[in-house]
Design brief:
single chain; 372 residues; alpha/beta; 3 domains; eight-stranded mixed beta sheet; three-stranded antiparallel beta sheet; globular; DHHW protein; membrane; transmembrane helix
Length: 372
């Protein structure tokens, strides 16, 4: 009786395997995983070279893993089981309290940071009116969100160790202002970015340090989506929660238009609402990252601001435009032209470096741009 039962179990097991193999062969390969927000491995090219080098078999392993039938469903199930078992991270992402997913603080790339320090100091020696904002991660601002006992680098110390080497530049302490509101919705639960509310709180905290004497305090707040699942949800496979994205419209008479210079596209809005229909809804802000973005306003105050930035700046800039005649956003990861010529062409007289800490700790593009 026992042997018969074992044979039945083994038969069922083999039937399941054969089913998945046949189904995998019949079903067309997926090119993109919406859940993970990444390109999936395709069937590798079969050549003599790829066979002898072992490349074919390593790629085949990735292919079978990526194209496994019901892969997304199994990944969701795995994360749920992991959480039930008390595991505190998935794919390098902490499964935090209150539904928060938290990125680990990057270990500083010492060589890259040293190059960045030298490049910035060279830049500040020949320019004036320069500020820097380095935005800590959510786990740094509110460690109570981290799983119990989860190790986390001291992000604030890393920022201090970096910025203390810089000269002739105003270092704005972003951490202190954000910590005052650490229990509020400053960061997305499923993404590494700060929320529009977090950017708003930071703006009010630092406005006077940027030379803005009377910052606007009245805004119309609009909920534009409640279904945002960010990069941390994609990386971890935890899709338990989703986020809201809000837009803050200041009560001002200042008008503006946006020029996406490289793309040769002009618009009268900082928001690309069509992006709300895509996986990465955070690209609502300016349509994502671009090499250079030019914002022209109806102000005539001759205040022209250049921002060296990563994607954290995208949701911060809408709070800045009422106070400047021009704002030029440059993302060094994508901009390869002469920065000095750009400064001259736009008559820049104020500068802001605005980065997330995790980007700055490993970035190499800023030093490349400033040294070009």
């Amino acid at each position: 009786m026992l042997k018969r039962f074992q044979r039945i179990i083994i038969t069922i097991f083999y039937v399941i395997i054969v089913f998945f193999l046949i189904a995998g062969l019949i079903m067309p390969d997926k090119k993109m995983s919406e859940q993970e927000n990444r390109t999936l491995t395709q069937f590798p090219e079969l050549t003599t070279t790829s066979i002898t080098s072992g490349h074919f078999f390593s790629q085949l392993d990735d292919y079978l893993s990526d194209q496994f039938l019901f892969r997304d469903q199994f990944m969701k199930l795995k994360v749920r089981v992991d959480k039930i078992e008390g595991k505190r991270e998935s794919a390098g992402v902490y499964l935090g309290h209150k539904g928060y997913l938290l990125a680990k603080n990057e270990t500083p790339n010492k060589k890259a940071l040293n190059n960045t320090v030298q490049a910035i100091n060279k830049f500040t020696s020949s320019h004036e009116n320069i500020s820097m904002m380095i935005i800590p991660s959510s786990g740094t601002i509110n460690p109570a969100l981290l799983p119990f006992g989860a190790p986390m680098r001291d992000g604030i110390q890393d920022i201090h160790d970096f910025t203390k080497q810089l000269s002739k530049i105003q270092i704005i302490d972003s951490a202190s202002g954000l910590k005052k509101y650490k229990d509020e919705y400053l960061y997305y639960k499923t993404d590494h970015h700060w929320t529009t509310y977090g950017a708003y709180r930071e703006f009010l905290s630092v406005a006077n340090k940027l030379g803005i004497e009377k910052p606007i305090t009245k805004y119309k707040k609009y909920l534009v989506t409640d279904s945002f699942e960010g990069t941390l949800a994609s990386e971890s496979g935890d899709h338990t929660h989703s986020d809201e994205i809000h837009v803050y419209e200041p009560e001002t008479k200042v008008k503006y238009y946006v020029n996406y210079v490289i793309e040769n596209k002009k618009t009268t809005s900082l928001y690309e609402t069509k992006q709300l229909k895509t996986k990465d809804q955070y690209t609502l802000f300016e349509g994502g990252n671009h090499p250079v973005v030019e914002i022209n306003t109806t102000n005539n105050n001759h205040k022209n601001l250049l921002i060296f930035k990563d994607s954290y700046a995208n949701s911060f800039v809408p709070f800045l435009y009422p106070y400047y005649q021009k704002i030029i956003m440059v993302d060094p990861r994508y901009y390869n032209d002469d920065i000095n010529k750009l400064i001259e062409n736009y008559d820049i007289n104020q500068y802001l470096f605005l980065y997330s800490a995790n980007t700055m700790m490993k970035d190499t593009s800023l030093s490349d741009l400033l040294n070009s």
